[in-house]
Amino acid sequence: MYIVILGAGRVGYMLAKQLIDEGKNIALIELNTERAKISTDNLDCLVVNASGTNLDTLKKAGIQKADAFISVTQSDEINMIACGIVANEFEKPTTIARVRNVDYVDTRLLDESILGIDYIINPDIEASNAILRAVEHGAISDVMQFESSSLEMRDLPLGRESIFINRPLKVVRKELDIEFLISVIIRDNVSIIPNGETILLENDRVYLLSTEEVFEKIYTLEKLGDKEINRILIVGGGDVGMNIAEGILKQEEAVPNILGKLKHILRIEKRKKIHIIDKDYDRTKFLAERFPQALVTCQDITEEGVLEDDELIKNDLIISATGNHELNIITGSYAKTLGIKKAISLVTKDSYRNLAHNLNLDVTISRNTTVVSSILKILRKGNIKNVYALSGGRLEVIEFSVSDNSGFIGKQLSEIKLPKNTLIILITREEETIIPYGHLVVEVNDHIAIITERESIKKLEGLLAE
């Protein structure tokens, strides 16, 4: 696969590095000379230091032989124009544009008949959706969901008093007598695929696979607090904060059936109360008109005494979603010391998650990682349904459906020669979720979820395409 990426900022560089490590052929176009030099010095790919909206530049990067063109510059307009040029001049490449401005996404400007862009990725929407999933599940961890399955994957940092540490994993499973699978351990920035003899240690971060009911039991045993969240403070009224507020309020108003209506009536006093804080007066005025059921105040969270207000401290959850990601971490951490039970912070880099863990934040959502995961889902072959990047992109969880021409069909799982450090974590068959075992035979339309290292992606894609 040959891929041309326009833009060597954080997302472009991260995406290029990940795809190069997987064995993809990459060309990177970057107008900024300094960023182009950094990419040339650190990435094993062709780097073209020129404008990506120039046809000669695109040809120099090899667009005529590319399978995909991805534009992730800081400018929505450049991303759209560049994809439009590629779509109109060349038939082969799949075009993917990062577009931040929601107004563009909501218009017909991006219709195929006008610009011909195949996929639009909006980082604010991707990040908002990830935060909403975390809120829905108690704001305890990031949540990875799979199609037609009740199983979820969540991450859990292990503290000094964790029930999981200092004993073989098989002993812990037997003592707890609950169904769960630990698919990967992150220890000192190294990924470990565990077995029954593996001993978990303090400060390990583990990714568990189980049902929501089991996670509630685990959270109780780990003393991670009450799942119920009724009062939410959103710091930052930009597009992410606005999308989060809108998503929560829509969930509150959704009444799917008679039973839902009854529950709605009985819990009317427990409806979520939302308080949005932003320092821009015009923005808060706009948000107050858009969300009359929410409290919106114009305040600067960095000013002394603002966060210490008694009413703010009564909130169950704080979501820090400003454009300053260091401020988001500090605000969430400080809020917890004041008495707010849970904190979610939006960050730019996945590496910030380790810092956030040390500062006692419950959930950190990396905007860049959510964008890269969305792009990888498009690029992957083999009926890919979901892609989640873990551990800074070093690991991926890939969910795919088995087509009728797949080489997996009719084989027992033990017969499939998977790449090193690759683990099948679940199979869904006609809405039945199956924990994998060696003699299980793969059937057409099975949904399989696999966790694997970045270096194994190329071989795994080859197996999926057989």
Q: Please, could you describe this protein's structure?
A:
The two termini are 16 Å apart. This protein has 466 residues and is an alpha/beta fold. The strands form four sheets. The chain has a six-stranded parallel β-sheet, with helices on both faces. The chain is 34% helix and 24% strand. It has 16 helices and 22 strands. The protein folds into three domains: 120 residues, NAD(P)-binding Rossmann-like Domain (Rossmann fold); 152 residues, 3-Layer(aba) Sandwich (Rossmann fold), CATH 3.40.50; 92 residues, 2-Layer Sandwich (Alpha-Beta Plaits). Helix 1 packs across helix 15 and helix 6 packs across helix 9. The protein is globular, with a radius of gyration of 23 Å.
Total domains: 3
Flag low-confidence runs: 255-269
| Overall geometry | globular
Estimate the mean pLDDT confidence: 85
Distance between the termini: 16 Å
Q: Within the largest sheet, what's the order of strands?
A: 3-2-1-4-5-6
Record the SSE blueprint:
Layout: E1 2-6, H1 10-21, E2 25-29, H2 33-42, E3 46-48, H3 55-60, E4 68-71, H4 76-89, E5 94-98, H5 102-105, E6 119-121, H6 123-136, E7 143-145, E8 152-157, H7 169-176, E9 181-187, E10 190-192, E11 205-210, H8 212-221, E12 231-235, H9 239-253, H10 258-266, E13 273-278, H11 281-290, E14 295-298, H12 310-313, E15 317-320, H13 325-338, E16 342-347, H14 352-358, E17 363-366, H15 367-379, E18 384-390, E19 395-401, E20 423-429, E21 432-434, E22 447-453, H16 457-465
Helix pairs in contact: 1-15, 6-9, 6-15
